[in-house]
Specification:
globular; alpha/beta
Length: 169
């Protein structure tokens, strides 16, 4: 049996409450998925932050991006770009899972994936919205959202090889 799949979380601090609620549902006691998050697992003092994050993304099986209206102007967008570069160099790894937390975030994601090089295979990746329609107000997962997170957890856990997967539910 192989170890747990590593899941790098990319988000801005403003969405931390949502990310924590999401993670309560995604990471269970089975240990099939392991959270990698530089805001939780701090970078070693004296180490280059970008280099450390790039190493973590390169080692990740999955990158979940929580995309709000501020994401594109902060470090999160750089993390997603690193994941896309890694994906284009390693035939589909990591799996990229976009979670949109506002209409501006969703619009940014759609433009980002449409502008991405064809070899990254981003154009067919669906996002999961968690926001009030037409707004930038994210909402905590309700019963349907929790089921969607559990389905995502099960799909990510069952995936034989991240390279074989190129779409998210």
């Amino acid at each position: 049996m192989s170890g747990p799949k590593t899941v790098f979380l990319s988000y801005v601090a403003d969405t931390r409450a949502f990310v924590d609620a999401f993670c309560e549902q995604l990471f269970d006691v089975s240990g099939r998925l392991r959270r990698v998050d530089w805001l939780i697992d701090n970078v070693t003092p004296g180490k280059d932050i970008n280099a450390d994050i790039a190493e973590r993304i390169a080692a990740a099986d999955v990158v979940i991006s929580f995309i709000c209206e501020k994401y594109c102007r902060r470090m999160g967008a750089d993390e997603l770009r690193m994941a896309v570069r890694q994906r284009s160099q390693s035939t589909g790894r990591p799996i990229i899972v976009p979670i949109t937390l506002g209409i501006d975030g969703r619009d940014w994601w759609r433009a980002f994936k449409n502008d991405a090089p064809e070899e990254t295979a981003l154009r067919n990746i669906a996002d999961k919205p968690f926001f009030r329609p037409g707004t930038n107000s994210w909402v905590l997962p309700d019963v349907d959202g929790i089921h969607a997170i559990h389905d995502l957890r099960d799909w990510l856990s069952q995936a034989e090889s991240p390279a074989a997967q190129n779409t998210a539910r």
